[in-house]
Specification:
The two termini are 38 Å apart. This protein is an alpha/beta fold. The radius of gyration is 20 Å and the shape is globular. Helix content is 38%, strand content 12%. Strand 1, helix 1 and strand 2 form a beta-alpha-beta unit. Helix 4 packs parallel to helix 6. The longest helix has 22 residues. The strands form 2 sheets. A 4-stranded mixed sheet has the order 1-2-3-4, with no helix packed on it. The protein binds pyridoxal-5'-phosphate (PLP). Pyridoxal-5'-phosphate binds next to loops.
């Protein structure tokens, strides 16, 4: 990444914990990125929407590195931490002069967030936070079961994600391409997942599964994939 930064670089987008891989930047990684950027006039857009869904280590934001508060636009939201997906409410933390421009853009593109949704957001922030830890532990349990299950399936190889609620197995050994395999699993096995290529060309060879579902359903999905692979992968 450091080798790609040059005088034309204006913005660097970070996302940790990461969708789709579940990868996490450690504090050391973040400090190295900050060092690579140095004192250049480069903004960082840091998408930290999964910051409360991290299973190892502490989340560390580049915004807390000295000199980066002014150059970071931090994005977060309520959909992951408080299970409010679909409520369409997120927020950004940035310099006041940038906030004015973003507010203008948001007002003219989405009008505003419904007021009752905002009230729910206030409740979520001010209420008992133990639900967040409880949900985190539950996702960790599901991740462990699902990833272990995937690794038992012929042709699938999956690393343990350190954050977010996705599994991103490598499926190259099945002999199938990502899109074809994702379509076949949906149409023939009744299991919905995304082709890694939905996130760009480098996603070829991978599938993305979400573990935001019950353990019962996740186990059912594993059974269906295994059965399908038994018939279709040599
Ligand atoms: C990395 C990342 N950022 C932002 C979002 C946006 O979430 P929402 O539109 O629910 O606020 C998502 C949702 O999947 C995400 O994965």
């Amino acid at each position: 990444m450091a080798s790609l930064i040059n005088d034309r670089t204006r913005l660097i987008i970070l996302n940790s914990p990461h969708n789709p891989t579940g990868g996490v930047l450690t504090k050391k990684d973040v400090l190295q990125i900050a060092e690579a950027i140095g004192d250049r006039n480069i903004m960082v857009l840091s998408d930290e929407i999964y910051s409360r869904l991290q299973y190892e280590g502490e989340h560390f934001s580049i915004m807390s590195v000295p000199g980066f508060k002014e150059r970071t636009i931090l994005l977060d939201g309520f959909s992951k931490t408080y299970a409010m997906t679909g409520w369409r409410m997120g927020y950004g933390v940035m310099r006041p002069d940038l906030a004015v421009q973003i507010a203008r853009l948001a007002t003219n593109s989405t009008s505003c967030t419904a007021s009752f949704t905002q009230m729910a957001g206030i409740e979520a922030l001010r209420g008992d936070q133990s639900s967040v830890d409880k949900m985190n532990s539950e996702f960790e349990r599901r991740r462990d079961v699902f990833v272990a299950g995937l690794n038992k399936i012929k042709g699938f190889s999956c690393r343990l994600p350190k954050g977010a609620f996705y599994a991103f197995p490598n499926i190259t050994q099945t002999g199938w391409t990502s899109k074809k395999l994702a379509d076949a699993l949906l149409e023939q096995a009744g299991v919905a997942c995304l082709s890694g290529t939905a996130f760009g060309e480098h996603g070829e060879g991978y599938l993305r599964f979400s573990v935001a579902n019950s353990l019962e359903n996740l186990n059912k999905a594993l059974g269906r994939i295994e059965e399908w692979v038994g018939k279709n992968v040599r």
